[in-house]
Amino acid sequence: MSGRSTSFSLTAAHVAQVHRAIADGGPGPGAQLHTDTDYNDWVARIMKSHPAPGLPTLLFAYGSLIWRPEIEHVREEIGIARGWHRSFCLRMLRFRGTPDEPGLMMALDRGGQCRGVLYELPNDDLEGQLARLFRREFTYKPPNSMPRWIKVETAQGSVPALSFVMNRASAFYAGSLPLEAVAEVLARACGHVGSGAEYLLNTVTHLEARGIRDRNLWRLQALVAECIERDGAAASSELIQTRGA
């Protein structure tokens, strides 16, 4: 990381400016949610398709699983998933957005490459751990983030790992958006679990702590900071004009 700035443009103060208390509006009309039986079927399907039975099960984390892993792990290392990249391509009408102001969250989409964190999961109650993980990662039918075995390169060679990749057939798939358009969304969207700006700041902070610099995310956090500052200045100017009227 020598020669690179590690000073974030996006700060906790920016996040506080975007945050607001929002009630959970629920899944919305017509939404189909996964049942316990559905989740059990997904666990069975993934366990049956394990590409290396008997060897440690690895989980490839690229976003929030890095700063909120949810499940136990016995070790971690850096890995590269080729053929996949981080993308704010998942439209959120809940959680970090609302129907009136939809948000965006990251998913692993096709193309490029992605440096992330490989977690080795303990063998104890692996099915139970996956069941908890799946309940966290996908809610609606069809799943937005599909559990899938992918290849990840490590210092020791290529290994199979479980990850969550974008389901392009999902109604919530936003496609490939310009960073400027993503920044405008993240600078404003907020849901009952928090804002898009908070999600981005947490992700880039924990990636940097592990020596991972995603150039797109680094540029994005600067753009989001600019958008929040611009919106804040505009709101202040409007308030002054209103008081002076």
Automatic annotation (TrEMBL):
The lineage of its organism: Bacteria, Pseudomonadati, Pseudomonadota, Alphaproteobacteria, Hyphomicrobiales. This is glutathione-specific gamma-glutamylcyclotransferase. One of its GO terms (molecular function) is glutathione specific gamma-glutamylcyclotransferase activity. Keywords: Lyase. Its EC number is 4.3.2.7. GO terms for biological process: glutathione catabolic process. InterPro entries: ChaC (IPR006840), GGCT-like (IPR013024), GGCT-like_sf (IPR036568). CDD domains: GGCT_like. It comes from the Bacteria. The keyword Lyase applies. GO terms for cellular component: cytoplasm. It is an enzyme of class 4 (lyase).
